[in-house]
């Protein structure tokens, strides 16, 4: 029973032993064809070792046993002179060659095991970090909500109290940070995206109209695409909100903020948010999409940033199979989302040009024809509190 169990566990080695014995017998029977079974022995040994690497001690025992068996066959075949010496020299040479191959294979396997262990450790740390962020964000939301509720009650009794306004503003800012932390914690997990077909013109128009009421800027919308887009609209809206919020923070009244969309020429498309503000320092560009990275620490703290907005943009782009990039302009900065999603036109007819009229809540708006008949809207809108964005 033990022998049968061993054969089941080591069927590969047992098969190789039978094959080696057959080749050794053939060497004895046909000395003139010695080279063919000799090479087959070593080739088969290499193949077996590739499937079932043995320990160092087992490898040395196998090589020594096979070398001794081959030497015994050579001596029994009655070779003489140079032929005998040539065959005897070939045995240790092949043994050393196999030993060197086995040593490199074991070294490579050890390195791979080490790399896999490090990868598993990092994956475990990342999962624990994500779980911590999720748990901490959920736990913090409850006391923040309770504190805000009490402060709002006090505000009704003492309207206009500056200390209450400051406290509520900080709680709103903390609530926004918690929401973004939860979004980043979900990014990359199964089910993070819920894609569906949306009308890109209507979607970007809605995002633009909401933000055109936020601050006194010169707002521009340029969409050179028409049709349906398969994305997660909520995740994409969060990314665009982060980019537009960032553009408003780093611009002043009268500066230009533009939202644009166009094909990239490779089956995908680009959504771009550019501004004519202060721009990003060159040394900050390589790390601008990292978490907690802020291009200008002093200004960001003054204006309420936490360094999570652009990290959300990068996470949403990666989740859609795309990427994001940033480019310093002559004046200002352009942030781009490159999404590998094809646009499927709803019909072959040209889209209806944007109608002229007043934007809701805007001071004035003009529309004039542009590419694809959609046009570019430029709006100089009234000033409002950024905290409501």
Short description:
This protein has 389 residues and is of the alpha+beta class. Helices cover 55% and strands 14% of the residues. It has a seven-stranded mixed β-sheet, with helices on one face.
Give a quick set of tags describing it:
single chain, 389 residues, alpha+beta, Heat Shock Protein 90, two-stranded antiparallel sheet, 10 helices, 14% strand, elongated
Q: What is the element layout, followed by pairings?
A:
Elements: H1 2-9, H2 11-29, H3 35-51, H4 56-76, H5 81-157, H6 162-186, E1 196-199, H7 200-211, E2 218-223, E3 228-231, H8 233-249, E4 256-263, E5 269-275, H9 297-303, H10 309-319, E6 323-328, E7 333-339, E8 362-368, E9 376-381
Parallel strand pairs: 2-4
Antiparallel strand pairs: 1-3, 2-9, 4-5, 5-7, 6-7, 8-9
Helix pairs in contact: 2-3, 2-4, 3-5, 4-5, 5-6, 8-10
Radius of gyration (Å): 35 Å
CATH class of the domain at 196-388: Alpha Beta
Class of secondary structure makeup: alpha+beta
Biggest sheet statistics: 7 strands, mixed
Ends apart, CA distance between termini: 76 Å
What does this structure look like?
This protein is an alpha+beta fold. The chain has a domain at about 195-389: 2-Layer Sandwich (Heat Shock Protein 90). The chain has 10 helices and 9 strands. The strands form 2 sheets. It has a 7-stranded mixed sheet, covered by helices on one side. Helix 3 (about 35-50) runs parallel beside helix 5, helix 4 (about 55-75) packs antiparallel against helix 5 and helix 8 (about 235-250) packs antiparallel against helix 10 (about 310-320). It is elongated and about 110 Å long. Residues about 295-300 and about 345-389 have low confidence and may be disordered.
């Amino acid at each position: 029973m033990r022998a049968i169990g061993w054969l089941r566990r080591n069927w590969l080695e047992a098969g190789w032993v039978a094959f080696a014995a057959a080749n050794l017998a053939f060497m004895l029977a046909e000395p003139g064809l010695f080279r063919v079974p000799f090479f087959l022995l070593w080739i088969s040994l290499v193949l077996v070792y590739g499937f079932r690497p043995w320990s160092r001690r087992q490898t040395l025992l196998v090589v020594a046993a096979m070398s001794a068996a081959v030497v015994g066959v050579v001596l029994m075949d009655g070779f003489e002179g140079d032929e005998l010496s040539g065959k005897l020299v070939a045995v240790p040479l092949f043994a050393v060659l196999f030993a060197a191959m086995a040593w490199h294979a074991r070294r490579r396997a050890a390195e791979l095991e080490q790399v896999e262990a490090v990868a598993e450790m990092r994956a475990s740390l990342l999962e624990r970090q994500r779980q911590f962020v999720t748990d901490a964000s959920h736990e913090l939301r409850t006391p923040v909500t309770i504190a805000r509720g009490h402060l709002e009650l006090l505000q009704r009794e003492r309207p206009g109290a500056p200390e209450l306004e400051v406290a509520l503003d900080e709680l709103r800012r903390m609530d926004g940070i918690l929401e973004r932390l939860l979004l980043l914690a979900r990014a990359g997990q199964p089910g993070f995206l819920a894609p569906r077909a949306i009308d890109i013109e209507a979607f970007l128009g809605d995002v633009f109209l909401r933000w055109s009421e936020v601050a006194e800027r010169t707002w521009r919308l340029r969409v050179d695409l028409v049709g349906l887009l398969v994305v997660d609209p909520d995740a994409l809206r969060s990314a665009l909100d982060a980019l537009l919020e960032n553009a408003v923070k780093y611009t002043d009244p009268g500066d230009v903020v533009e939202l644009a969309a166009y094909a990239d020429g490779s089956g995908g498309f680009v959504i771009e948010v550019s501004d004519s503000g202060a721009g990003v320092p060159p040394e900050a560009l390589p790390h601008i999409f990292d978490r907690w990275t802020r291009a200008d620490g002093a200004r960001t703290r003054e204006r309420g940033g936490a360094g999570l907005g652009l990290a959300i943009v990068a996470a949403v782009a990666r989740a859609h199979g795309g990427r994001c990039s940033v480019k310093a302009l002559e004046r200002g900065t352009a942030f781009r989302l490159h999404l590998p999603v094809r646009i499927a036109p709803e019909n072959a007819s040209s889209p209806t040009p944007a109608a002229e009229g007043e934007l809701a809540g805007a001071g004035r708006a003009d529309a004039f024809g542009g590419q694809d008949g959609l046009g570019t809207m430029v709006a100089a809108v009234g000033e409002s509190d950024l905290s409501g964005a």
